[in-house]
Specification:
Elements (H helix, E strand, L loop, with lengths): L2 H19 L1 H11 L15 H13 L10 E5 L5 H10 L2 E6 L2 H13 L6 E5 L12 E7 L8 H11 E10 L2 E2 L9 H7 L7 H11 L2 E7 L1 H17 L1 H7 L2 H19 L3 E2 L1 E6 L6
Parallel strand pairs: 1-2, 1-4, 2-3, 4-5
Antiparallel strand pairs: 5-9, 6-8, 7-9
Helix pairs in contact: 3-4, 9-11, 10-11
Length: 285
């Protein structure tokens, strides 16, 4: 990678780290977005944000064959670590939570200790573009709504390949643009998250195949993206006065505009979301 691309990638990483370490963001995500699970939820059977978010974790776990105590998992962009705690509690598996935010990592460690799971979960500060773990050390690479923040998503997939054992799988969700999204229409969305692009189902299929992964699968659950951003916006409006005391009023106002832009883009058919999976093949001897 040339120096210009490296500098750009580092700049994107720095923006994401500073944002999620901020008091404004920490209070918003923990209190409104879903608490332990700060990602898009599944709303077919509930309207509650936290419950819907936990349903996503459980449904993603169903995509992992033979999940058991011997399965080693790394969660890229783990946030507050809710997925790792679900997996450790229900399957007794070991998990590494890799995350850029020291603030979120501290909350993650506290919740792990409170729930008696800190012997199974290790919280690591770091970037998923340079995973600080050995080659071929995990059975599963997991990620929820985090890879969009990367300045080099191909590098994230390459790092997943490196740390996966042969036969291991990557399973993740990511807010994406639709494969047929017209150019230029998502600029209001990009501006809120300080990015220049989003991935797509087709993009991830192409770069996973290029890396050598096989068995690409996708479960298109895009309708939940629209519902999620709408529900978060509704909750933030309902709880505006309280949240404006713990996150700045300016932050809350800008967040409401940004959430509205996501809802409008979803209504226009410009966005996509779902569960993606692929496998690192076992070499033929």
């Amino acid at each position: 990678m040339n120096q210009a691309n490296t500098s750009k990638r580092d700049a994107v990483t720095a923006v994401a780290e500073a944002y999620y370490d901020s008091t404004d963001a920490d209070n918003f995500y923990f209190n409104i977005w879903g608490g332990e699970d700060i990602h898009i939820g599944l709303y077919e059977e509930t309207s509650d944000i936290a419950e819907a978010s936990r349903r996503t974790v459980a449904h993603m776990a169903d995509h992992i064959p033979d999940l058991n105590a011997d399965t080693r998992i790394i969660d890229l962009g783990a946030g507050y670590g809710g997925a790792a705690r679900y997996l450790a509690h229900n399957f007794s598996c070991e998990a590494v939570c890799l995350n850029l935010s020291d603030v979120q990592n501290a909350t993650n460690r506290r919740l792990n200790a409170e729930q008696g799971l800190d012997d199974l979960i290790r919280v690591v500060h770091g970037s998923f573009e340079e995973i600080p773990e050995p080659d071929e050390s995990f059975d599963v690479v997991w990620s929820q709504d985090a890879i969009l923040h990367s300045g080099n998503r191909e590098q994230v997939v390459a790092e997943a390949w490196r740390v996966l054992k042969p036969g291991g799988i990557m399973v993740f969700t990511d807010p994406m643009q639709a494969d047929d999204c017209p150019p230029g229409v998502l600029q209001p969305v990009y501006d809120r998250i300080h990015l220049e692009s989003l991935g797509s189902f087709g993009f991830y299929q192409d770069i996973s195949a290029k890396q050598g992964f096989t068995d690409f699968t996708k479960e298109d659950l895009t309708h939940n993206l629209r519902t999620h951003y709408s529900r978060v916006r509704d909750e933030l409006e309902r709880d505006y006065e309280r949240m404006a005391k713990v996150s700045s009023k300016d932050y809350i106002d800008r967040m409401l505009v940004g959430l509205g832009n996501w809802v409008e883009a979803a209504d226009s058919g410009y966005l996509a979301w779902g569960i993606i999976g692929f496998r690192k093949p076992v070499p033929v001897s």
